Amino acid sequence: MLSGGREGTFVADITALLGELAHWPAHHGVIARKEPLHPRYVKDASAYEIKQEARPPGSCAASANAA
């Protein structure tokens, strides 16, 4: 996982996690990113989005449900 420029922002290349991609065009991949909600949009965020925002970086729903 690569750290982004803003605090709390993360970027990851998840192409290898997707299984067989033989039908994809050559040299294409999938990048995922997570960043904090912009203050402008916090008031419109759903309860789920706010709950996810409160999670520490690196945690996931699967590990949270296991606890």
Explain what the structure shows:
With 67 residues, the protein is an alpha+beta fold. It has one domain. It contains 2 helices and 3 strands. The chain has helices at residues 47-53, 61-66; strands spanning 2-3, 10-13, 31-34. Strands 1-2-3 form a 3-stranded antiparallel sheet, with no helix packed on it. Strand 1 (2-3) and strand 2 (10-13) form a beta hairpin. It is elongated.
Number of domains: 1
Query: Helix fraction?
Result: 10-25%
The best one-word shape is: elongated
Q: CA-to-CA gap between the ends?
A: 24 Å
Q: Mind sketching the topology for me?
A:
Elements: E1 2-3, E2 10-13, E3 31-34, H1 47-53, H2 61-66
Antiparallel strand pairs: 1-2, 2-3
Characteristic key phrases:
67 residues; alpha+beta
Task: Summarize the entry for a quick read.
By secondary structure, the chain is of the alpha+beta class. It is 19% helix and 15% strand.
